[in-house]
Specification:
mainly alpha; 13 helices
Length: 276
C-alpha cells in the first residue's frame, strides 16, 4: 500500500511535470517552426516536429542586419548592467547602513517607482531625450533602461546587503580602512552572489525590451534584436520560419549566461530572503 507521504510526492512530481510541459511547449514549438520549410507551419494537422527539417530559416535570419542588431543589443544591455548595478550597489549600501528619516523617504520613493509600468513613463522620457537631442543613440536607450531597472536592482541588493552585519564596517574601520576601502575590499567581495543575481535580472530585462527600443530608434543601424525581428513581419504576411529562427538565436545567449551563472543567481536571490 502506498503511504500518504509517497502519494503526496507522486502528486507533486506529476504536477511539476505538467507545469514543466506547459512552460516548455511554446519553446519547443518555436524551435520546431524554425526548422520547418515555409509551407509546413500551416500544415493541417500540425506536426510537433517537422517532417523535412531544414536550417534555411537560420541562414536567412543570420543576415548582415542581424549582426548589427546583435552588436547594438550587447552594447546597450551590458552598459545598462554596468551602470545599473554600480548605482544600485551604492544606493543599497547607503540604505542599509544609514537609517535616517531622509533615507527612509528615499527608500519609499524607490518602492513607488517600481509600481509604474514602462508604458506610463515612456512619454516623459521620450520628451526628455528629444529635448536633449539624444534620440536614435545608445545613450537614450541606456538611460531609459537604467531608469526602468534601477529601482528593482536597488531593492534586490538591499535585501542582500541587509544580511551583512554592520560589525564588518566597524572592524574594517578599526583596521584603518575608510568608507571607500571598506566598501570596495570588504563589502563587495561578500556581495558577489547578489551582484550576479541582479546583473542577470537586469540583462534579461534589457535584452528582451521592445517598447523603448522601438520608440527611441529610427534607423536600422541603431535597432536592437527585439525591434529587428519586425523585419520578418510585413504588410502582406509574416515569415514565421525566419521569425522563430531569429527568436531562437536571440534566446541562446541569455539562456547560456543563465545556465553558467545559475548557482550564483539562485544563491543571490535566496541570500536576501532572510536577515541574520
Amino acid at each position: 500500500m502506498i503511504s500518504p507521504s509517497t502519494s503526496t510526492r507522486m502528486l507533486l512530481s506529476l504536477g511539476q511535470l505538467v507545469v514543466l510541459a506547459v512552460i516548455l511547449l511554446p519553446f519547443f514549438w518555436m524551435i520546431s517552426v524554425s526548422l520547418k520549410p515555409a509551407d509546413e507551419p500551416f500544415a493541417i494537422p500540425a506536426n510537433l516536429w517537422p517532417d523535412r527539417a531544414t536550417l534555411e530559416n537560420y541562414m536567412t535570419a543570420f543576415r548582415p542586419e542581424f549582426k548589427i542588431y546583435f552588436l547594438n543589443s550587447i552594447i546597450v544591455s551590458f552598459s545598462t548592467v554596468l551602470i545599473t548595478v554600480t548605482l544600485a550597489l551604492l544606493a543599497a549600501y547607503s540604505f542599509t547602513r544609514n537609517q535616517t528619516r531622509l533615507i527612509l523617504i528615499l527608500m519609499s520613493l524607490v518602492i513607488i517607482a517600481q509600481m509604474f509600468p514602462a508604458s506610463a513613463i515612456i512619454i516623459p522620457i521620450y520628451k526628455l531625450m528629444r529635448s536633449a537631442d539624444l534620440l536614435n543613440t545608445y545613450t537614450s536607450l541606456i538611460l531609459a533602461y537604467v531608469t526602468m531597472t534601477l529601482p528593482i536592482a536597488i531593492w534586490m541588493l538591499r535585501g542582500f546587503l541587509a544580511r551583512l552585519p554592520k560589525e564588518l564596517d566597524e572592524a574594517a574601520a578599526v583596521d584603518g580602512c575608510g568608507p571607500i576601502r571598506t566598501f570596495l575590499f570588504v563589502i563587495l567581495p561578500l556581495c558577489r552572489p547578489g551582484i550576479i543575481a541582479t546583473s542577470v535580472f537586469v540583462l534579461i530585462v534589457t535584452w528582451q525590451e521592445f517598447l523603448f527600443a522601438l520608440s527611441f530608434t529610427s534607423t536600422k543601424e541603431m535597432r536592437t534584436l527585439p525591434v529587428g525581428m519586425n523585419d520578418f513581419i510585413g504588410q502582406y504576411g509574416i515569415r514565421y520560419g525566419e521569425l522563430m529562427a531569429s527568436s531562437v538565436l536571440i534566446s541562446v545567449p541569455v539562456i547560456a549566461i543563465f545556465f553558467l551563472l545559475q548557482r550564483q543567481f539562485v544563491a543571490g536571490l535566496t541570500a536576501g530572503a532572510v536577515k541574520g
